[in-house]
Every structure is written in C-alpha cells, then in structure tokens.
C-alpha cells in the first residue's frame, strides 16, 4: 500500500466508527391520539384533518389541526401547576429536563396493592443495588401501569373512569418526595400512572411539594421495561408552551451499548496497527 492509500483506508474506518452510535435511543412516550387519557373534566383531544390529498399543483399535501389539554397522555407538569409563582413550561431551563435515569421498580408491590405509594425504603433499595442517586437525576416509578395504557378503566383502575374519587393507582408517597428534595438533587420526578399523587389522594401533597421545589413532574411515562434501572440518560422534551402549566412531552432515553462500541474501537486499533506495520515495512 502507498501512503495515500493508508490515509484513505484509515479515514474510511474513522467515518464508519464515528458514524456508529455507542448508545441506543428508547422511546418512553405513548402516542398522542384520540385514545389519549386525560384527567376527567378536560376537553377531548381534537385532531382535525385540514388537508390530506392531491393538490392542483400535482403534489400530495397533509396538514392537521390539533387541540389538546396540557395534561394528557405522556406529559410534563410544570412547577406552576400546583404552586403559585413557580416555573411555567417555557421558563423551565432545558438542562433541567435532562438527567441520569433512576427507575424505581415497584411492579410487584403495585400488583399486590393498587394504592401503593413509593417509599424512602424503595429509594434506598435502589441505592443499595446501584449507587447514590446521581445529581440532576430523572427519577421515575415503574409500577407496570404503563402496560394498561390507553384503557382508561385499567389505568384509573375503576369502572367509573370519569369519577376521580373511585381511582386506584400507585404513585409517590410525600415522605419519599421530601427525602428526595432534602437529601438528593433531582431534576424531574415521574410516574407511569396518570398522577404523581396516588389515585386516592384528595390533597395532592406530591404535586405541591414538587411545585414548591420547582421540580417538574412527568406522568404516563411509557415503555419503562425497555431501559435499565440505572445507566440511562432521560430527556423530557416538553412542548415549549408559553405560560404553560405543563404540556405534552416526547420522553426518551439513551442507553449505552457496551459491546458494539468496544468492538469498533478494537477493530480500529487493529487496522491502525496494520497500517503502522505497512509503513514500517516500506521504510525498511
Ligand atoms: C380516532 O382515530 C381513529 C384513527 O385516526 C379513527 O379511525 C377514529 O374514528 C377516531 N375516533 C374518534 C372518536 O374520533
Ligand atoms: C376541532 O377543531 C376544528 C378545527 O379548528 C374545529 O372546527 C372543531 O369545531 C373542533 N371540534 C371540537 C369538538 O371542538
Ligand atoms: C393522486 O395523484 C397520483 C398521481 O397523479 C395518483 O396516482 C393517485 O391516484 C391520486 N390520488 C388520489 C387520492 O386522487
Ligand atoms: C378495557 O379493559 C376492560 C377490563 O379488562 C375491558 O373490559 C374493556 O373491554 C377494555 N376496553 C377497551 C377499549 O379495550
Ligand atoms: Zn399533569
């Protein structure tokens, strides 16, 4: 091989390796559609086709109107939702909506008791299995409830999904939220159920505590079994609604792929070694 061939070879390999991601991206969002679950009292989702078809210009064209309450489906609660003079949606710094994923698995407990509330012990158990909850974490309860979505009777766990006094679903205990606020530093607290307060709550202490601490909530988070309980980075990409009290969010995670990235760098090292060898042979 001549020197310029080496350069070409190495640069092609760098491009292949540089172009391959060393993480996968996992969607944690339910579809926003006419099956989207809203808290009772909200107006219905409105998806209206404005145009869908051939135009006189000879090209295909689609455009729709969407009307949605802020708090439906996979969405964010802004701190202002339950506390006066706290951050509204457009004011939340974007860096507060990204952080290490901490998934608190209470699926067995929620299966036994629908009114389960995540405790300080559950948080300490996560820490004993992994490490201290990292700074700026996005801490989300996985109760298994995301699998019930979008069946409102199953999600609210009642025969009367329009009567919130009959709701039975798990969420956070206020003591665990107080502990997260005072002992740790978290960016977002989430659930795979419709509320950060459990179904039977009448006073919404979790919403109030989070609002007061300027910590957004994430509700109806999907697909939590597809990411590890530790090691992901979660992004809560809420629609930037001016003066919003929340909003629909595309929540997703990146998860490192260990094998592929090391394979690539091993392959690269091997080729660089071979090139060095070729040059060595040419010189001598
Ligand atoms: C909901 O959306 C589906 C698919 O777009 C449509 O077929 C159905 O008629 C819609 N239902 C209502 C109640 O709007
Ligand atoms: C839905 O939005 C369309 C387009 O703005 C409007 O014409 C229609 O009246 C709305 N439907 C409801 C039920 O509000
Ligand atoms: C739109 O235009 C294409 C190409 O002219 C044609 O094949 C198709 O049948 C048209 N579709 C409709 C819905 O008119
Ligand atoms: C929701 O779940 C209930 C209970 O399993 C079932 O009876 C009902 O048919 C489901 N509804 C829909 C729309 O799938
Ligand atoms: Zn909400």
UniProtKB/TrEMBL annotation:
GO terms for molecular function: arylformamidase activity. Keywords: Signal. Gene3D superfamilies: Putative cyclase. Residues 1-19 form the signal peptide. It comes from the Eukaryota. The keyword Flavoprotein does not apply. GO terms for biological process: L-tryptophan catabolic process to kynurenine. InterPro entries: KFase/CYL, KFase_sf. PANTHER family: CYCLASE-LIKE PROTEIN 2. Belongs to the Cyclase 1 superfamily. This is Arylformamidase. It comes from Mytilus coruscus.
């Amino acid at each position: 091989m001549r020197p310029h061939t080496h350069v070409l070879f190495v640069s092609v390999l760098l491009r292949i390796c540089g172009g391959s991601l060393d993480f996968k991206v996992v969607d944690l969002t339910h579809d926003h559609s006419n099956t989207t679950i809203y808290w009772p009292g909200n107006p219905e989702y409105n998806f209206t086709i404005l145009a869908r078809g051939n135009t006189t210009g000879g090209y295909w064209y689609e455009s729709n109107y969407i009307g949605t309450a802020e708090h439906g489906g996979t969405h964010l609660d802004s701190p202002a939702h339950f506390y006066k003079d706290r951050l509204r949606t457009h004011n939340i710094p974007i860096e507060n909506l990204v952080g290490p994923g901490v998934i608190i698995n209470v699926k067995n407990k929620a299966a036994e008791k629908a009114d389960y509330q995540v405790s300080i012990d559950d948080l300490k158990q996560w820490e004993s299995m992994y490490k201290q909850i990292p700074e700026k974490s996005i801490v989300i309860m996985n109760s298994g409830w995301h699998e019930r979505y979008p069946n409102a009777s199953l999600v609210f766990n009642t025969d009367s999904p329009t009567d919130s006094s009959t709701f039975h679903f798990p969420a956070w205990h206020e003591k665990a939220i107080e502990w997260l606020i005072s002992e740790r530093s978290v960016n977002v607290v989430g659930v795979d159920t419709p509320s950060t307060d459990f179904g039977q709550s009448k006073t919404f202490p979790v919403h109030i505590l989070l609002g007061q601490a300027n910590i957004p909530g994430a509700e109806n988070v999907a697909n939590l079994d597809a990411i590890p309980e530790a090691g992901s980075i979660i992004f809560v990409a809420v629609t930037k609604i001016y003066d919003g009290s929340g909003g629909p969010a595309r929540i997703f995670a990146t998860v490192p792929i260990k094998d592929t990235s090391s394979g690539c760098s091993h392959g690269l090292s091997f080729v660089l070694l071979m090139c060095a060898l070729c040059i060595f042979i040419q010189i001598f």
